[in-house]
Structures are given as structure tokens and as C-alpha cells.
Specification:
The complex is a heterodimer. By secondary structure, chain A is an alpha/beta fold. Chain A contains 5 helices and 5 strands. In chain A, α1 packs across α3 and α4 packs parallel to α5. The two termini of chain A are 14 Å apart. Chain B is an alpha/beta fold. In chain B, the strands form 2 sheets. Chain B has an 8-stranded parallel sheet, with helices on both faces. In chain B, α4 crosses α5. Classes of the chains: A alpha/beta, B alpha/beta.
Amino acid sequence: MTPIKTIAVGFDGSMNSQAAVTWASHLASALGAHLKVVHAVGLLEHAGQSRHTAARSEDGRALALAAGLLSSQVEWLAVDGDPLSALLRMTEAPHSVDLLVVGSRGAGQHSGTLLGSTSLELVEHSGVAVAVIPQGGPRDDSELGAPSRSE
Amino acid sequence: MLIVAGPVGAHSHDGGQNHPEQQGRIFSVMDGVRDLDLDDEIRYLTAHPAPLEDLSRVHATKYLNELESFCRQGGGNLDPDTFALSDSWDAACRAAGAGLEAIAELERLGDGVAFVPVRPPGHHAGAERGMGFCLLNNVAVSAAALTARGQRVLIVDWDVHHGNGTQAIFWDDPDVLYISTHQWPLFPGTGRADEIGGPNAIGLTVNIPLPPGTTGDIVRMALEVVAQPTIDQFNPDWVLVSCGFDGHRDDPLGELALSSGDFAQLAQLASSFAPRSGRLVLFLEGGYSATALRSSVATTLGALLEVPVEQEATTFGGPGSEAIEAARRGRVQAMDALRMKSHLAGGQG
């Protein structure tokens, strides 16, 4: 099994993505890994919500630091694209992360089908392991370290 | 003669007034068409849904089934940008079918220019998923129908955003030359100059990323300096244009600095790439300023039909000349690297 040195976690400001960042931060702290907090900048956000993005950057970093990560272990990335493409790009050079972490349902997404579900599509398309964090996060931090493996 | 296939999306696929990709875009576009006062020199075609056989050349059956089912169940958001509603499947199928109608009519006439004013737009939609306001890839459906008949197709995409879906669909297709000028960096984050095509189509993807503030003279130069040599070599039978007008300086979704007069010149340049009259089809992609859309559509089509239209002056003097040289250089380096890799692989085999 490839050691997990770098983790990317999707963050759109939703409660689910906050849980994902917290979970990923705990895992990164336990493994001594580097964490990339990834925010996808879509067409609508580019058109007029740039201040919102700045706030999210602070929120994302704050969650990671609160979970025990050092500032030097956390990187904020605002990536042009839709959430799925932005996260999949993290698996390619130069990022080449070992694990993707995402909330089970992002902001404004439809549940229950592959369409509109970043988490389900990630599991289908990712070449690295994907951890899907349920709403509210895992029940217990002791559950850390058992991310689901995508094929 | 102007062939107008559509419009589609004026009364369907309604995401509301707060979404920039809205029904009102089609009204602005059609106002631009009417500004030409073409009378008998215009022919409107009804856009029928693209047959499944044509959609399936471009999109995975699984995606088509899921999208139809998703819409039939009421729809929702595919991602934070992209919506699909109960009537969106039908609108998307008709948007994809409009180009097929346009091509058939041009073939019947043997002359003219075709315009496909449809929404939802298409160039971000990939084989397996919609995104960036797009559900089905309209220009790709038409291009694939043509290549299935042995035709060679040039797609020129001057939307402010890179057409990642179109690029991916034809990445390894030796019968399609895809050329894109687009703002960089910007959504969808693809379209670097070193993205040049797959092993069976090396060099047949041409990306020219341009900085914010780029003016019309630079976009034209980009096409002439970087793309024209490949176009001449490729020798297309058809030219399809992913005709986004969001490169206009008034557009709220991009930061290029083009005027309606620039689009007229780009249209003339695209026309010069076609082997003869009757082989040019323009597909509406983006464009989110009502006034810019109307004037840009009128000047673009007016330039192709040699109809005088009031237009904004062409623009010049913006940044981007360095980007053109960088794109040319990046492209050459990527092609050399691929050739070397291929040579080495051959030597080892």
C-alpha cells in the first residue's frame, strides 16, 4: 500500500465539506501528511462571489489548524473548474496526492444519483483512494484511518 | 443565404433570471439576427431532437440514460453552475439536433452560412458528464456526424472559456482539428498550450490561452500565427465554430476585451478556413450580456453575409502577444517531446 503523504480535501463551505476538512486534518495530523484544501471556482463564483472565496479560504485553513495541523502542513488551493474536475486534477502531477477526501453531499447538489454527486463520481473516476465523509462526520475519531478505496 | 437552425431554449430549460445562462439570451440573439433585415435571404429550420445514434457517437449511453432519467424526475443541479430541469432533456436534445439540421440544409443548398442559436450551450459537456452550463455537446454531435461520413472537421472555439468537453471528445480523433482561444487562467482550468492531442491525433488540438484584457488584434494574430499552419495542413471539409460571445468586453463572466467589431473579423477569418461556401456553421456557446450578445450576433453574421451592420470599432493594443509566442513555443516543445517518446517506444519495441 502506498504511504499517504499528501491528502486533498474538497471544500465549498457546506457543512459536509467542513466535516470533510476536519476529518482529513485529523488524518493528516496522525500520519504527518500534507493537506491541500481545494476549493473549485466555477463559472458563477467567478462572475461575482470572489469575496466569498476569500472568506472560505480562511474558514478552510481555520478548520485544519483547529484539528491540530501545523500551518506549514496546510495549503489552500482555489482551482478553476467544477468540483469533480478540480479534485481529480489533484491526483495528477504536480500535486499527485495519495488520497482524496470529500463530503458526501456538497452545496446545491442532488442526492441519490451519480449525476450531481461529486462524491459518487469521484469514487467512479479517481485513480487514488477516496474517503467520503458522511454528513456530520464520522461518529468517532477512532474511525480515522479507514478510508474507502476506489477502484 | 443565412440558415438559422432553431432557436432552441427560448421557452424551456428555465433556470430563472438570476442565472446568467437564461432564456433571455436567446431573445437577445434573435434580436441580433433580425437586426440584419435579411427578408428573403434567411431560412429558419425547426430543430428536431438529435437521434440517439448521433448522440451516442459523442456521449456514453450510461450518461444519456442518467441525464434523461434525472430530468424526467424533475432534475436538479449537476454541479454548482449547471442545472437540468424537467424539460431540459428535450431542450438539450433539440439543441444537439439543430446543428444536424443546419448541415443537411447547407448540403442541400450547396451554399450559404448556418447559425445555430441554441441553449443549453455545449462545449463543456464531455462524453460522460455535463458541466459549465452544458448538458450535451452540440458542436461535437455535429462534428461526429460529419466524421462518420468521412469528412474532416475543423472546430474553432473562440468562447472566453476553454471547450474542455469538445477537446476531450476529439482528443485522439485524427479527423477533427480542435482550435481554442480562451482566457487563462479561467474556468474550466484546462486548455494549456501543451495540450496538443492524443497519440493518434498529435498536434490536432491547438490551445492558445490568452491573458485578461486581450484585444481583438491579438486573438486574430493567435489564430493566424499559431493555428493557421495546422489548419492549412489539415485541409478541413467543414468548419464548425463554437461561437461564444463572452469574450466581449462587457460580458460579466470573462475579462477579455473584444468588441462586436472584433467578432466580425473573427468570423471572416473562420470563413477563410472553409474550403468553400456552404461549409461553415456557427454554434452559439456563451455570451451573457444582453446588449453585447445582440450586437455581436448581428456583426458576426453581417460580416459573413456582407450585410452592413452598425458595429463597435475593432480593438487593439491589449496584452497577449507574449502569450501567443509562449503558446507557439509550448506547442512545439510538447510535439517534440511526444515524437521523442514515440520514437523511443518504437526503438524499445
